[in-house]
Structures are given as structure tokens and as C-alpha cells.
Design goal:
Largest sheet: none
Order of helices and strands: HHH
Number of helices: 3
Shape: flat
Strand content: under 5%
Radius of gyration: 15 Å
Oligomer: single chain
Number of domains: 1
Helix content: 55-70%
Length: about 80
């Protein structure tokens, strides 16, 4: 069996959970557009687009909700 890039949603802290949420979001982009050249080329198109940046924040927030729920919101 090969190693998984996502062995678990469990993280020790909320900060680690947020980092995982960002990684989930970035991985989704890489899987959707596998060409690094294309991703680099279009980056400038959304880098100053406030609506796109807000949309990106929403995706990360949604992924963070998932990670937080998986971790029982870091409550014992």
C-alpha cells in the first residue's frame, strides 16, 4: 500500500488544523489544474481580484470546518 498524502484529518491543535485546511484547498487546485505552468500563468489574473480572494477564503473556511468537526473542535 502506498503512503497517502492525507492519512488523517486529525491534528493536535487548531493551528495545525488550519494549515491542513489550506493544504486541502491547495491540493484541490493542483488536482483540478495539474499543470504548474498554467497555474503560475493564471495566478496574476486572480492575485488582485478581490472577489476571487474572498472565494478562496471561503474554500479554506469550509475545509477548516471539516477538519474542526473531525477533531471534535479540539475539545476533550
Amino acid at each position: 500500500m502506498t503512503d497517502s498524502w492525507l492519512p488523517s484529518l486529525l491534528t493536535p491543535t487548531p493551528e495545525a488544523g488550519y494549515a491542513l485546511a489550506v493544504k486541502l484547498s491547495r491540493t484541490a487546485v493542483k488536482l483540478t489544474q495539474p499543470s504548474a505552468e498554467v497555474r503560475e500563468r493564471v495566478r496574476s489574473a486572480y492575485a488582485e481580484d478581490f472577489a476571487a480572494l474572498i472565494a478562496i477564503s471561503h474554500v479554506v473556511a469550509t475545509n477548516f470546518q471539516t477538519v474542526a468537526a473531525a477533531n471534535g473542535y479540539w475539545r476533550s
